[in-house]
Write a structure and sequence with these properties.
Keywords: Membrane, Transmembrane, Transmembrane helix. 79% of the residues lie in helices and 0% in strands. The protein has 5 helices and no strands. Helix 3 packs antiparallel against helix 4 and helix 4 runs antiparallel to helix 5.
Length: 136
Amino acid sequence: MENSGCRHDRSEGEEAETWRNNGLQPAEVLHDRARLAEFLPPGRRDIGYTISRLPRTRERYRRRQIDKGDVVWYVLLPLVGYVLYCDAGIRVLKVGLLGRALDGLASASVLLLVIGVRNAWDLVVWMVLRRAERSQ
């Protein structure tokens, strides 16, 4: 299979040359790195918030107010997405790992998008069923 030109382990010089070939200057590469590294603080904040909610989630699960599926979709999978965001932010700051950082960022974004759509649907169904129970 022919190499498509996408290499994940590049030196800083090779990476800058690739950017230059695409019409960007190395200074812009560093600026883009700084912008991409901005995913690190929100990821850390969201990880902290999720971990702070674990005792309440565990208590609600113990009381059987929520099931395993809710724990997985509302806590564990978002936590994985936030960890991927942090990982992408760290990889952006390391020389030669920009390609992998962008892969991680894309994976985290798709994962969190799917989780958000699924959780929104779950919440709407729950609200409709709850309203139907109240009206009876």
